[in-house]
């Protein structure tokens, strides 16, 4: 495996891209026709249509100097300065893409249905995975706002998705005077990442994202700390363009995600009605903010209520927390439901939440650890997660991301055993799975897997030969 270091110069605006940045960028722009799966000899060969957009930006030189800035603590504004969006009304303009396929695979001698949202593509922005679902309404807005504002981590999939949506809008208007902006708040970057952007950060900056760095204290004050806060814009955060800026909370956990969840529910119900043969189904969803899971749960319940008792399907939704613990997942989902006005009271909210998968089956719990410790620690390289990532890749040819997909399966596999062991196992299958078929919603996120594997390499868990970094054509 070769590592290619190239010093490249973008003639337009004299932008010099340092050799180390190009090395990291080369990990992003993989020149394959479709997703290809390699076994352990090479952990990674991934390409998405979003890479084609990256290539176009690089080839055309239609990007300016990366924009980094810091927050001005002297500016203040109120919620009235932000543009309010009626997402229910915008939902009327949504144009659905064709349904994502469903693959049946075998994992530890058990059949699993994989809902391949990683293969879903939104026209124009080329978003995939659950961000294609979440950002569907935003992509289809009739009167797109002048500025999108959000916040989160510097390698966030939602960050890259929003950057792609805004970039697509600018392509449509051909970079006219009314250029759309995407402003993103994050904590102060580590020095190496600021000088050597990589992964989703590099891509989002390349697509024109304006990055605003704030101190840890300011970040916690504004956004409620590592696990997020209110879905409303912070009271002391002024919009970049008053009256023309909209706020999208971390991970897209707001009304913008409702329409995509409804379409996902319709696809799952339609597929299971045609292929389920009346069997009970558990739909497992990895959760960050858990917005996809809770909106999907309520959308499926709504569809089930429209069915007659005779034709009603037994379909339940199960969320697997990948950020924080079950308490955090419950708070996030309740907050989203309250915001989208899908229930009346707090007591009603709690009744509308999907089941949350505990970190271990009941007969394996009580190991002297808190739930947070028992769940996988988000973003931290973990040997057990890497083992599961390899197992799913090798056994059934499905590529997972390491932050959500492989982490979710690490917890999931603790709860069930090979079908041959169901009757005799000392740790029998959880009631969430026993006697039920399993469908896993593949949330995508494969665009960021290169930087994820590099972090595993830095921790000594993956050799550099396993991180396939391919060179991209010269600029």
From TrEMBL:
Question: What cofactor does this one take?
Answer: pyridoxal 5'-phosphate
Domain of life of the organism encoding this protein? Eukaryota
GO MF annotation: an example: D-cysteine desulfhydrase activity
Keyword Signal set for record: no
- Keywords of this entry: Pyridoxal phosphate
Q: Does the keyword Calcium apply?
A: no
Q: Which InterPro entries match?
A: ACCD_DCysDesulf (IPR027278), TrpB-like_PALP_sf (IPR036052)
Q: Which family does it belong to?
A: Belongs to the ACC deaminase/D-cysteine desulfhydrase family.
The name of this protein is Tryptophan synthase beta chain-like PALP domain-containing protein
């Amino acid at each position: 495996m070769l590592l290619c270091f190239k010093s490249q110069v973008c003639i337009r605006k004299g932008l010099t891209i340092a050799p180390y940045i190009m090395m990291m960028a080369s990990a992003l722009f993989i020149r394959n026709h479709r997703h290809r799966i390699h076994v352990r000899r090479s952990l990674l060969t991934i390409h998405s249509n979003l890479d084609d957009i990256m290539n176009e930006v690089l080839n055309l030189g239609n990007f300016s100097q990366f924009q980094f800035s810091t927050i001005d603590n002297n500016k203040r504004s109120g919620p009235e300065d932000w543009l309010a969006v009626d997402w229910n009304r915008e939902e009327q303009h949504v144009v659905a893409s064709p349904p994502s396929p469903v693959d049946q695979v075998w994992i530890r001698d058990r059949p699993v249905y994989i809902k391949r949202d990683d293969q879903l593509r939104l026209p124009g922005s080329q978003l995939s995975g659950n961000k294609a679902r979440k950002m569907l309404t935003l992509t289809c807005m009739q009167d797109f706002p002048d500025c999108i504002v959000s916040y989160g981590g510097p390698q966030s999939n939602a960050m890259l998705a929003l950057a792609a949506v805004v970039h697509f809008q600018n392509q449509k208007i051909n970079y006219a005077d009314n250029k759309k902006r995407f402003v993103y708040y994050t904590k102060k970057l580590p020095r190496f990442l600021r000088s050597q952007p990589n992964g989703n950060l590099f891509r989002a900056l390349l697509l024109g994202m304006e990055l605003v760095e704030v101190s840890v204290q300011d970040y916690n004050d504004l956004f409620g700390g590592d696990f997020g806060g209110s879905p409303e814009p912070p009271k002391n955060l002024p919009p970049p363009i008053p009256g023309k800026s909209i706020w999208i909370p971390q991970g897209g956990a707001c009304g913008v995600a409702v329409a995509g969840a409804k379409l996902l529910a319709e696809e799952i119900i339609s597929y299971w009605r045609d292929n389920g043969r009346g069997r009970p189904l558990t739909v497992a969803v990895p959760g960050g903010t858990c917005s996809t899971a809770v909106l999907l749960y309520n959308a499926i319940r709504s569809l089930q209520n429209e069915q007659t008792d005779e034709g009603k399907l037994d379909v339940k939704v199960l969320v697997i927390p990948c950020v924080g613990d079950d308490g955090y997942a419950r708070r996030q989902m309740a907050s989203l439901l309250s915001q989208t006005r899908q229930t009346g009271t707090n007591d009603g909210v709690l009744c509308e939440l999907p089941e949350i998968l505990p970190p271990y089956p009941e007969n394996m719990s009580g190991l002297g650890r808190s739930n947070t410790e028992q769940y996988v620690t988000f973003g931290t390289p973990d040997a057990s997660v890497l083992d599961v990532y390899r197992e799913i890749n090798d056994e059934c040819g499905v590529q997972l991301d390491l932050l959500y997909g492989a982490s979710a399966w690490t917890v999931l596999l603790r709860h069930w055993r090979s079908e041959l062991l169901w009757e005799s196992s000392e740790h029998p299958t959880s009631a969430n799975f026993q006697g039920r078929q399993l469908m896993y919603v593949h949330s995508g996120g494969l665009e960021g897997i290169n930087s994820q594997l590099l972090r595993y390499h830095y921790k000594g868990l993956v050799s550099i030969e396993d991180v396939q970094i391919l060179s991209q054509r010269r600029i």
